[in-house]
Amino acid sequence: MPKLTTKQTKKQESGADMRAFGPLFNKDLGQHILKNPLVAQGIVDKAGLLGSDTVLEVGPGTGNLTVRILAQCKKVVAVEFDPRMAAELQKRVNGTPDQRKLHIMLGDFMKTELPYFDVCISNTPYQISSPLVFKLLEHRPLFRCAVLMFQREFALRLIAKPGDTLYCRLTVNVQLYAKVDHIMKVGKNNFRPPPQVESSVVRLEPKNPPPPVDSKEFDGLLRIAFVRKHKHLVANFKQTTVLHMLKQNYNTYCSAHNIMLEDDVDIKDKVVEILESIGMAEKRAANCDMDDFLKILLTFNNANIHFS
Question: What would the pLDDT profile of 176-222 be if each residue is shown by its tens digit?
């Protein structure tokens, strides 16, 4: 019988460990179950739940967070992709007072029509981190807060400030619509099986009312600004593809709103003039704050130039 390599042995041991806990976890689905009860309770406590709350939980797994949420709220709606995990969770509450408070929705969270909820709590499958955040922020009516577990680097991007290494388009898009705070760091050994990376928990609180800014338009501006975030903004805007897009958008907007087009308008000169008029031509996206981006958007829009 051939001798197993060290790597093969570790893989076998890892698989045996996972099977010992019941269902075999699917790493392709980002299934890393939070096993530390102190961390689980800390996450629930940071949500500030009320007895009247309906809580949305994304990816409940075997229910280590769920049972703690159920103890503090009126109802839990748990969205689970894996039927095996959903069955384990249902078995865990069957025959208890919490059974009637738990509603499991089986399916892909990104394709699920979400019901009303007051608070969201999630040990998030890391591959859907960004889509999940934006789906939550687009949900109406607005929820009170979300307490979400993410890969450490993703979480740090959400809370970054201008000038930080991880400050990026994602940062600005999210912070336009929500206040984001770092709650706690969570080491990989708090999960089974352990993920390859460290994790963090953030608390996301939507701004209510949300700012009256078109999200697609704002993101269109940020795409240009952050394509090379350490370059001067004017250099990013002077790229041929960007100028072509802005000229098309300008013509389309003017046509749709019966605005007389300027004769022989040079879009490059117009863009440079706009940026210089508000002192933003020599600024870099990496150091711009929210007010800077909103000022750029408003000034371009007032000149009938749009980004979507």
Answer: 999 999 999 999 999 988 999 999 999 999 999 999 999 999 999 99
Contact predicate 274/299, CB 8 Å:
yes
Residues annotated in a binding site: 32, 34, 59, 80, 108, 123
Could you tell me which residues are annotated as the binding site for S-adenosyl-L-methionine? 32, 34, 59, 80, 108, 123
pTM, two decimals, is 0.88
pLDDT tens column, 106-143: 999 999 999 999 999 999 888 999 999 999 999 999 99
| DSSP secondary structure of 231-295 | SBHHHHHTSHHHHHHHHHHHHHHHHHTTPPPPTT--HHHHHHHHHHHTT-TT-BGGG--HHHHHH
Are the beta carbons of 127 and 58 closer than 8 angstroms? no
Distances (CA, A) of 223 to 130, 161, 276: 16, 18, 20
Q: Report pLDDT digits (tens) over 249-282.
A: 999 999 999 998 877 789 999 999 999 999 999 9
Predicted pLDDT at 55: 98
Q: Please, which contacts does 38-43 make with residues 24 or more away whose CB atoms are closer than 8 Å?
A: 39/184, 39/186, 39/190, 40/64, 40/65, 40/68, 41/68, 42/183, 42/184, 42/201, 43/121, 43/123, 43/147, 43/149, 43/183, 43/184, 43/201
Give the tokens for residue 93. Answer: 């509450």
